[in-house]
Amino acid sequence: MTSFEEAGTEETVTCLHMTFYHPFQEDKMMFRYLDFCKREKVRADEMLKFGRDSNTCRYNLMDTRVSRIQFALQFYRKMNSSEFCFEIKNMSKRTNLIVDQTELGYLNKIDLPWKGIICFGDYQILAEIEEGESVDYFEIYLHLAKVPILQERCLPSPQPIPENGISPSLFPSQGKSPIEIDENES
């Protein structure tokens, strides 16, 4: 056998991509301690904490309005499944965390969607999970956004079209209240 045949199968690694945005990042540099554009290997049993306490949190946000521990992420495998997920937990008593329009109070937790937006205060974080197979570790890859994530991802919703297929904007009476007329009046 050749060394190629004896080599172990390369295992893919789950990677959590997190893109951060804050409107005053350039002035206040609240992300200055985050290491952007570098994949970081993390043990599967390690809980990732984000906040301003550098002794407790692995990822520091330098802002007095951020809680000592703002939120935590835990990597896990679903019961009776080979699927890996991340659980997000709000650790802030002061600020609710919004994950894809679901509001989490203190100590509330939910599964992080495969692609979702995390918001608190003026912070916007796009989280995207890239599937992998490794049970021993995962990777995290941080990015910095120059434009608001919500603005970039959310388009204004189009005006609904009624079932008859005729757009209400075609009628000049739009916006006026209906007038009730007795059937005997002309």
Which tags fit this structure?
186 residues; mainly beta; Tumour Suppressor Smad4; 7-stranded mixed sheet; 5-stranded mixed sheet; 3 helices; globular
Q: Any overview of this molecule?
A:
The chain contains three helices and twelve strands, in the order H-E-H-E-E-E-E-E-E-E-E-E-E-E-H. It has a single domain (15-152), classed as Sandwich (Tumour Suppressor Smad4). The chain has helices at residues 3-6, 25-28, 149-153; strands at residues 15-21, 39-43, 48-51, 59-60, 71-77, 84-90, 97-99, 102-104, 109-111, 115-120, 123-130, 137-144. The chain has a seven-stranded mixed β-sheet with strand order 2-12-1-11-10-7-8, with no helix packed on it. A five-stranded mixed β-sheet has the order 4-3-5-6-9, with no helix packed on it. 7% of the residues lie in helices and 34% in strands. It has 186 residues and is mainly beta. Keywords: Cytoplasm, Immunity, Innate immunity. Residues 49-121 form the FHA domain. Belongs to the TIFA family.
